[in-house]
Amino acid sequence: MDAIVDQFLNFDILRQSLPLLLTGLWMTARLCSAVVLLGLVGGLFVALANLSTRWWLKIPAIIFIDIFRALPPLVLLIFIYSGLPFAGIRITPFAAVALAFLLNNSSYYAEVYRAGILSVAKGQWEASASTGLSKPQTLAYVILPQAVRNVLPELLSNTIEVVKLTSLASVVSLAELLYNANMARSITYNASPLVAAALIYLVLLWPLVRLVSRFQRRLAA
Questions:
Q1: What is the CA angle 163-153-128, rounded to 5?
Q2: How far apart are CA 74 and CA 85, in angstroms?
């Protein structure tokens, strides 16, 4: 028992590893902010293109969604970081992760947005037009607020998955939380830093999980 505690909950090693873990946590926070924001904005544009009546917008959007929902994010990330240099395109690990997750997450957010927009009654468009609002104004001020409210649990669920997927950034040597925890593990020959990283993820994501459950119960009621 003592050996297990020493290997997984060694407080001396955790104290020594804390600065490295905090540096990784800051990088994870920056990465999550960039990835989630890019995904939400990119997904909205893709969803609007998918709902367009113009074929030159709709067909590329459908192809984009199908391709990047089918591609595993890890494969996409490694291709961008390790494959593009063969074509003379070299980008930083942070940019590679941001680009890979923008492509992947935009496709999922787009489907959530599309479902939300379609859930709003068509009469809302007609009522808005009768008040003199243009289509862009109707979309921005009438349709999108209702659409986002209708699919808020799905948006939050997808955001949780995005935050968890940022741990994949460690494979391209981006010094985020998991990468730094693994570095501390390799230096100390002890798994306590990895346990600490797992607990940090739990503390960060558990409130969001509970929030999603609350919204789902409210919508069901």
A1: 120
A2: 17
3-state secondary structure 101-155: HHHHHHHHHHHHHHHHHHHCCCHHHHHHHHCCCCHHHHHHHHHHHHHHHHCHHHH
The whole-model pTM stands at 0.89
- Cα–Cα distance list, 42 to 89, 116, 163, 170, 194 (Å): 22, 16, 17, 24, 33
- The predicted pLDDT at position 132 comes to 86
Q: Point out the residues of the chain with pLDDT beneath 70.
A: 1-2, 219-221
Residues 6+ apart with CB under 8 A from 194: 181, 182, 185
Q: Which two tokens stand for residue 54?
A: 């113009």
d(CA 176, CA 30): 9
Largest separation between any pair of C-alpha atoms in the chain: 74
pLDDT of 146 reads 93
